[in-house]
Amino acid sequence: MNRKAILRHITLTAIVSICTFISIRAQTKDSLSVKIEDGWIEKIDNKIGIDVSLNNSYEIFEVKTEDTKFILYPNTASNLRFNVNYKFISFGFQFTPDFIPGNGEENLKGNTKSFELRTALIFKHWFTDLSYSKVKGYYLKNSDDFRTLLEDDPYIQFPDLNYYGFAITTGYSSNSKFSFRSLTSQTERQLRSAGSFIPSINLRYYIIDDKSSGMRTQKSNNFESSIGPGYVYTFVSREKFYLSLGLLTRIGYLNTKLTTRLPDGDLTTIQDNFIFRWDGKVGLGYNGNGFYAGLYSTISGTEYRQENTTAMNFETRVFYHLFLGIRLSTPDYLERKIIKVEKLFQKQNDSN
């Protein structure tokens, strides 16, 4: 059995097992030891949440000048993500299996390999999200605009174009009656409708590197920092069903070091640009005792002008995130470890 077949078998087995377990637990009454704060938030501290989800969160690049436009996409329609959530900690990874419809059309668009690790720490007010992702293999989505460069292939392919990215986001939720965890890690439940002002800071470092053997290949090292306000409101019905709406904006700075590989040596240029980002979010979900599920959608926009040029880089996309999860009893040893960590954070907060 080859590697793809083994991976497909393991993934399908995990999905079937989770869905089977959910169907069993949905028929029984789950006794949660919970803590309710002022009737607004229900903490689910003695359960581990495990969920599987689909999303289309992948990196694309769009560059537009007065004469041309280049749109680079990975050969990926959907990612499969697994996540584990407990109290204030969330950890997950995602990849792009070929058996998902829309993935794996290698004859048309080339081969893409991608992987991402993500973890989050979500406290009463403060939260931090860290991620690392890598993608190899892109194609030119608007290849028809460059038909003279094509032979028999429908798309121009860049199999050795690589993306590596690190990101950290830190934010503050100002309203103690609003549960940010209920929308992200589902380790809490919002019992009554509430909203919160949520400013955030984002730091991001990413590399785009064409490692092909051709002439004049390029590599860019990019550092981006941004800050801005946001607001999220969650409408709750019957304590388990919810609708969430949010708007976040950030302005920032993007530094790009572009290296062009030439026969006579590397040519390096540096650009400094201001950048503007915005996100409009909507989510529908069910947050029950035994399991939870939801569908989130985000409209995201990015815009910046290249320094000393008339080129305008922009990107507007629609993302989706469909997830389904269950809650399991926490092993005693894990609960003891987490309690120690919580006490450590509490001591630090008290000392400040």
Description:
The chain has 352 residues and is mainly beta. Helix content is 14%, strand content 56%. The chain is built from 4 helices and 19 strands. The chain has helices at residues 3-25, 106-109, 181-184, 332-351, and strands at 34-37, 41-44, 47-55, 61-64, 69-74, 79-86, 89-95, 113-122, 126-140, 157-172, 188-190, 194-197, 200-210, 218-228, 230-237, 241-262, 265-287, 291-305, 312-329. Mean pLDDT is 83; it is low at 9-34.
Radius of gyration: 23 Å
Ends apart, CA distance between termini: 57 Å
- Contiguous low-pLDDT stretches (5 residues minimum) are 9-34
Average pLDDT across residues? 83
Quaternary assembly? single chain
The topology string of helices and strands comes to: HEEEEEEEHEEEHEEEEEEEEEH
DSSP helix count? 4
Profile the largest sheet: 16 strands, antiparallel
Structural class: mainly beta
Which percent band covers the strand fraction? over 45%
What is the 3D shape?
elongated
Fraction of helical residues: 10-25%
| Number of β-strand runs | 19
Write out key terms for the chains shown:
elongated; about 350 residues; 16-stranded antiparallel sheet; mainly beta; three-stranded antiparallel sheet
Topology record:
Blueprint: H1 3-25, E1 34-37, E2 41-44, E3 47-55, E4 61-64, E5 69-74, E6 79-86, E7 89-95, H2 106-109, E8 113-122, E9 126-140, E10 157-172, H3 181-184, E11 188-190, E12 194-197, E13 200-210, E14 218-228, E15 230-237, E16 241-262, E17 265-287, E18 291-305, E19 312-329, H4 332-351
Antiparallel strand pairs: 1-2, 2-11, 3-6, 3-19, 4-5, 4-19, 5-9, 6-7, 7-8, 8-9, 9-10, 10-13, 12-15, 13-14, 14-16, 15-16, 16-17, 17-18, 18-19
